[in-house]
Amino acid sequence: MDYNVWENNFKKSEIKFPNEIAKEMCNQLYSVTDKKVMAKVEKYKENFFDMNKSAPYMGLTAMDNFLKSRRIQDNLGEVSGNDKFTYELYLTGVKTVDYKYRFCFIENGVYPYPVKIALDAEIAKELEASTIIECKDEEEYVISLKKILTSKKMKGVIEGLMAINS
Fold this sequence. Notes:
Strand 2 and strand 3 form a beta hairpin. Helix content is 37%, strand content 20%. The longest helix has 15 residues. It has one domain. With 166 residues, the protein is α+β, with helices and mostly antiparallel strands.
């Protein structure tokens, strides 16, 4: 009897993930600033939900809840703490590699949208936006990211980094 139930018809999604879009936008800054300032997108070790908890044993609390659950259905599907992909976006300079101005985090699940953006408070105030923005699709996300990247606060930080890195 053949137990193989998988057909070989899986397709790679044509949808661009939020971190890939951010990298494309951020990579342009290096050449625009005469190779002085870089905007980076890097995987971050914690999810949004976990960032508010300062205890180093936070993961054990989640595991404890898993063990205490009386309903097995509570523990199926995406498991909290492992179900999100979080990236930090920040500015740095070629001569100031130890300096980091983190302007936002982005987070999505295995499906790229919706995506959440956790925004620097000063940029959020300038854009008259919440510090947490949820974008339902790629179009909404690109519009939000463009506003963030072209904000006055970002321009000021980039100009300062260009001066220091000259």
